[in-house]
Amino acid sequence: MPYFQDRMEKMPRDDLDWLVDERIRYTVKYAEENSPFYRKWFRNNRINVLDISSHEDLRELPVISGKTILGKQPPEINQFEFKCANWDDIYTIHETSGTSGVPKSFFLTWDDWNRYAEKYARAFISQGFNSSDRVIVCASYGMNVGASTMTLAAQKVGMAIIPEGKCTFPVRIIKNYEVTGIVGSIFKFIHLAGRMKEEGLDPQNSSIQKLIAGGESFAEESRAYVEELWDVPVYNIYGSTEGTMCGECYKKVGLHVPEDLVHLDLYDPQLKNFVDEGECGRIVLTTLLNEGERTGTLLLNYDTEDTSSIVSRDKCPCGRTHMRILNPQREAETVWVSGTSFNRVDVERAVFQRDNMEYLTGEYEAFLYGSEKEATLRVSLESKDLNHLDQEVVQENFIKSFLKYKRPLSEANLVGDFDIIINFIGPEGLEFYKEKGRPKRLVDRR
Ligand SMILES: [Zn+2]
Asked: What's the CA-to-centroid distance between 118 and ligand 1, angstroms?
């Protein structure tokens, strides 16, 4: 299968590491010259940028967060301290909603657009897309960068894009244009398959050959269910406004990080040190610029609040040398019970046990009550038909799978410090259906 940037994607490890360090040096220099935030920070902390010569030295610099960015832009102050190009060079302005609901501003130059698009283009090609593909993008356009820069990536790959933005498009779009791929999310694909069946188009016999799932983390079990529903491979893509675009290749052995275009470090929970190879850590991102390139928002050590671990830095069976990471999970979707943690994805894994899917739609929501020491997890599962349901089978599958690799939770469950209650709800009866926006599937109500 072809590559988008043959030489770069297959670069030997040593050369790649050397290139990353070279780009870090240029990026840090660019920060000092162009970023009001970093110029001040280097001065106040007496950092000589020439001392930052490799990725290890990034640990000398502060880890910043969305909060830091919000504190350095209106209304907090009257300028954008992370903006690091003149207005003349800014091509687009974006906003992402922070956890507080106040949007963070992002500025992109045309160089940024091309860098973002190249990351997606590499992923698309590694998944087997080419100029004969016609792809519906169900990611939102608007102020997000994902859908727009994916559309530019399609131009680089040569494929046609149908920019729907939402997954509520009429089924005839797939038929009329013989669409070959869709970018969406696990749950969008499940709903769409249902709509297609209602309209007499079997997803397994449609023109669709590949699906790309992004936007939120998912369990391998839910991916397997969607692959079965559509009888096509589902590839994972992970991206953010800040520029972490990583994609799975057709071998599906972790997401390739385009190491020459963005630098990712994995930090311990205190954000002080890198975690050991293979261990789970917080994804901390650093912009990487090639000499002479310009960027609108430069980030050094940006805490994405997502966690992952490195699968391998060895050459992938696809031929690419760039490192592979596990599907990232949101820290905000992780909760702590009896001194141990679990993520929304752990709940999802238990829902999507194969034998459950005879009875369930896959939609679920979970609420956590009680305290850190004594907690109750109440899970609501949407059933296809409440009159045709083997509650005991689903319950047993769920609990067995949920507690399987969670020994402390399992022990807490045995002694009564952690209860799991499962409810079955009819179609469209879950609480999140009444709320706007992205469903919150694990809610901590303690
Ligand atoms: Zn690969």
From this structure: 16
Peptide bond into 75 cis (omega under 30): yes
CA 210 to chain centre: 19
**For residues 307-320, average pLDDT:** 97
Å from CA of 135 to ligand 1 middle: 22
CA distance 44 to 27: 19
Please give the structure tokens belonging to residue 218: 């998912």
Give the other-Cβ count within 10 Å of 422's Cβ: 19
Cβ contact 133:159 at 8 Å: yes
CB atoms within 10 A of CB 274: 16
Mean pLDDT value across residues 102-115: 96
Residue 99 pLDDT exceeds 60 = no
Neighbours of ion ligand 1 (CB under 5 A): 249, 251, 316, 318, 320
301 contacts 286 by C-beta, under 8 angstroms: yes
Q: What is the pLDDT of residues 257-283, one digit of tens each?
A: 999 999 999 999 899 999 999 999 999
Q: What is the DSSP string of 148-199?
A: HHHHHHHHHHT-EEE---SS---THHHHHHT--EEEE-HHHHHHHHHHHHHT
Single-letter residue type at 312: S
Cβ atoms 61, 47 nearer than 8 A:
yes
Q: How far does residue 125's CA lie from ligand 1's centre (Å)?
A: 11
Q: Which residues are registered as beta bridge partners of 278? A: none
- Give the three-state DSSP class for 312: strand
pLDDT at 446 over 60: yes
- Which of 13, 84, 56, 26 lies closest to 259 in space, CA to CA? 13
CA-nearest of 26, 17, 6 to 293 is 26
Q: Which pLDDT score, from 0 to 100, does residue 377 have?
A: 97
Ligand 1 center–CA 62 separation, angstroms: 32
* Cα 250 to averaged position of ligand 1 atoms, centre (Å): 7
pLDDT digits (tens, 9 = 90+) for 41-70: 999 999 999 999 999 999 989 899 999 999
CA dihedral 314, 319, 322, 324 (to 10 degrees): -70
pLDDT, one tens digit per residue, over 390-433 is 999 999 999 999 999 899 999 999 999 999 999 999 999 999 99
Alpha-carbon gap, residue 33 to 5, rounded angstroms: 30
Structure tokens at 98: 């922070």
CB hemisphere CA count around 212 (13 angstroms): 33
Q: Which of these, 302, 307, 136, 304, lies nearest to 217 by C-alpha position? A: 307
